[in-house]
Amino acid sequence: MTTLRDIRRRITSVRSTMQITNAMKMVSTAKLNRAQNAVRSAQPYAQALRRMVISIAGGLTGEDHPFFESRDGGKTVVILFTSDRGLCGAFNANLNKALLAALNRGEPMAEPELAVFGRKGNEFFRRRGFVISKVVVQAGEAERVRQLRETIGEVAARFADGEAGRVFLAYNHFKSAINQEPRIVQLLPVLPPDEAQQGEAHQGEAQQEQARQGDARDGREPLFEPSRALVLAQLLPNYLENQLFLAHLNTEAGEHGARMVAMDGATRNAGEMITRLTLQANKARQAAITTELIEIVSGAEAL
Predict the structure, then answer these.
(1) Which among 156, 165, 193 has a CA at the least distance from the CA of 57?
(2) 88 catalytic, yes or no?
């Protein structure tokens, strides 16, 4: 039988846990504000760069640039972004399960090879026997940005050499603190305008309309100065690097948002548990008092 002392110890333990979860929620809230501002600041440039790439991509083939070359066979490289830490609800699990389902379907993700940013993604797919060529965990901001550039440079070189047939990017797209949507998008080969607009669900309808208007501006063929090859040689690496950087920012903001919501729920649950335990303790205390009174009265009557 649970004693009053056991209940009071349980209340003390739950109250300590509630203080921890509440502190974690406050920390995540502060970090979320900074991460959310970073995402919002990066989006205009990323959207403009994407519209430019989509506009130039119309009518281009592998002869114009190897990044536009569609090919059969070769490895599928997936760049995955997850968090290093847990306690953020289903933030990592939803993305990992979505990517696992896509990989298990096979085409177009045949012979998958992963480059993972984040400990949770590495642990999930390593346990399932997938080939992981690169892992970046517990890295500071500067180091992570350097690894982003290094990774996309290596992957782009492998694609240009024909070793990799497709390159995908998997991350959680940050919509709000309570809504992070898993996204798996194709980076290479660069999709034609129609396919890109259909495949990229993270673009809003207004942004897609702007992209379509930019693609068909008066039906005129764009002029390139100094040349199409030089424009593409400079633009496409910047575009790929920006896509990875934006995925990193979305992952960071989504992690803080998910952890804030999870810790808020844990704090409320702890408060409710304390209320129930306090009621149980009061009942146990009243029962103990009643028992003592009965014993006193019974003793007096016996005398």
Answers:
(1) 193
(2) yes
Which residue among 88, 115, 116, 170 is the active-site one?
Answer: 88
In 200-227, which ranges are continuous DSSP H helix? 205-215
| Six token digits for residue 177 | 């603190």
> What is the structure's pLDDT at 61?
59
Q: What pLDDT, in 10s, does the model give residues 76-117?
A: 999 999 999 989 989 999 999 999 999 988 777 778 899 999
Distances (CA, A) of 9 to 4, 198, 257, 286: 9, 57, 32, 18
H helical segments located in 172-227: 193-199, 205-215
Residues in contact with 61: Cβ distance below 8 Å, sequence separation at least 6, in sequence order: 68, 69
Please state the pTM of the whole predicted model: 0.81
The dihedral through the CA atoms of 247, 116, 131, 100 has a sign that is negative
Amino acid at 188: L
> Which residue type sits at 4?
L
CA 297 – CA 291 distance, rounded (Å): 10
Residue identified by tokens 């920012």 is: 249
- Which CATH architecture describes the domain 4-26+263-302? Orthogonal Bundle (1.10)
- CATH 3.40.1380.10-classified regions of the chain: 28-258
Give start-end residues of each CATH 1.10.287.80 domain in the chain. Answer: 4-26+263-302
Instruction: Say if CB 24 and CB 263 are below 8 A apart.
Output: yes
The residue assigned the tokens 């607009």 is 197
The most distant pair of C-alpha atoms in the chain lies apart, rounded to whole Å, by 114
First to last CA, the chain: 32
**218: exposed, middle or buried (C-beta count within 10 Å: 0-12, 13-18, 19+)?**
exposed
pLDDT tens, residue by residue, 165-183: 899 999 999 998 889 999 9
Which residue type does 271 have?
G
Class of the CATH domain delimited by 28-258: alpha beta
